[in-house]
Design a protein that fits this description.
Blueprint lengths: L3 H5 L6 H53 L5 H11 L8 E5 L4 H12 L3 E6 L7 H13 L3 E4 L5 H10 L4 E4 L13 H21 L5 E7 L23 H20 L3 E6 L2 E2 L8 H11 L2 E6 L7 E2 L2 E2 H14 L16 E6 L5 E2 H12 L4 E6 L14 H7 L7 H16 L17
Parallel strand pairs: 1-2, 1-4, 2-3, 4-5, 5-6, 6-11, 7-10, 8-13
Antiparallel strand pairs: 9-12
Helix pairs in contact: 4-5, 4-10, 6-7, 7-8, 9-11, 11-13
The protein binds the ligand O=C(O)[C@H]1O[C@H](OP(=O)(O)OP(=O)(O)OC[C@H]2O[C@@H](n3ccc(=O)[nH]c3=O)[C@H](O)[C@@H]2O)[C@H](O)[C@@H](O)[C@H]1O.
The ligand O=C(O)[C@H]1O[C@H](OP(=O)(O)OP(=O)(O)OC[C@H]2O[C@@H](n3ccc(=O)[nH]c3=O)[C@H](O)[C@@H]2O)[C@H](O)[C@@H](O)[C@H]1O binds next to strand 8.
Amino acid sequence: MRLMEDELFPSTPGKFKIERAHTINRQFHRCFASTSTMFLWALFLIALTASYLSFQSFVDTSSRYFNASWGGMHWEKQIRASATPRRPGGVSVLVTGAAGFVGTHVSLALRKRGDGVVGLDNFNSYYDPSLKKARKALLTSHGVFVVEGDINDARLLAKLFDVVPFTHVMHLAAQAGVRYAIENPASYVHSNIAGLVTLLEACKSADPQPAIVWASSSSVYGLNEKAPFSEADRTDRPASLYAATKKAGEEITHTYNHIYGLSITGLRFFTVYGPWGRPDMAYFSFTRNILQGKPITVYRGKNHVDLARDFTYIDDIVKGCVASLDTAQKSTGSGGRKRGPAQYRIFNLGNTSPVTVPALVGILERHLKVKAKRHVVEMPGNGDVPFTHANISSARTELGYNPTTNLEAGLKKFVKWYLSYYGYNPRSGGGATKASKSL
Ligand SMILES: O=C(O)[C@H]1O[C@H](OP(=O)(O)OP(=O)(O)OC[C@H]2O[C@@H](n3ccc(=O)[nH]c3=O)[C@H](O)[C@@H]2O)[C@H](O)[C@@H](O)[C@H]1O
């Protein structure tokens, strides 16, 4: 085997060879010297890149910190102040979806009687976020602090429970709307399944564990034909993905109740309407179109049967929500472990008197004093059910729930609010022209 030395010092001695050997030797040292210089340069470049990257990450972290909509001592102080009850025996409630329709009303009702309330809302653009901002402004004016954040943000939830020992969670954040699920199915999984689980994980780990009251839906009855709908009826035939995610929510909350001892109350809301309502709902969009002289599409069921809903006025729903909070027993777990069986309830919150969609349009025409341009079409197969009708005897017995507002009276209040909020200008129905400060 030839050694490297043999290459440099060939076996036959001679001047040339010796000189050549010296030359090679010099080249070797030069080469070695340049390699070590390169090595130093490489080291220098690596160090430079590393300092640049760590500086970048420092800038990123700092800007995230400074741009974050939550966190910091001032923020924590605001959260604590908002969560502190102002009456003896008052409760401290985290309301998710607080800038939503039901969330705003429930938060205000709790605040007005002296409970501590902190709101959480992601202000997504499913419908006009300016309406959500106006609701937030209303809450702020009543001393309710609303955090801008998502129920999927586990860090934020952990922080909120770290700052405040909430006694209750009123979980109203959700992707609502029956027919929109055809367009954006993932949003239902994101909010109604993944978001719910993230919230329950935070609640289960919180110390103390809060009692949870949350919004299920009348839509879980799906293709049920037995009327009125009772809590014990079948709910395994949902007609829309929305309904399926709400039904899944009932199963998921049951699991957390069973494993971790979380106190759970699920409320099946029946087509809730009223002031500060949701623009995607029929009564709201019909009002806008009627005032703008645009046609409205009225769906009709099979064999020309009118569709009907057990429309429920917001004030009645709020009473049901508050009564649910008041009658909720404490969760039994701690440190993420169940210590005993916990309460699990499901209630219908409806009005018990279904009204057909054409009759709803008739009431709106009277209150608005404008005739609607009705465009009647067959109900598309996109998740709608022909009718809903609540049996509310359980809620009556256990919550003292007693709805008192019929559709005629409720829509009168809605129209009054609509005109005060959007103004009489028929072109302004899509955006706020003035924000009312009262309900
Ligand atoms: O109780 C619930 O669990 C749900 O209530 C609500 O759903 P729905 O009862 O479907 O209300 P909503 O859309 O106002 O349609 C009312 C009627 O108008 C008909 N309808 C609707 C739109 C239209 O353009 N034309 C029409 O005839 C339509 O066919 C229907 O017959 C909530 O949106 C939902 O989030 C959920 O909470």
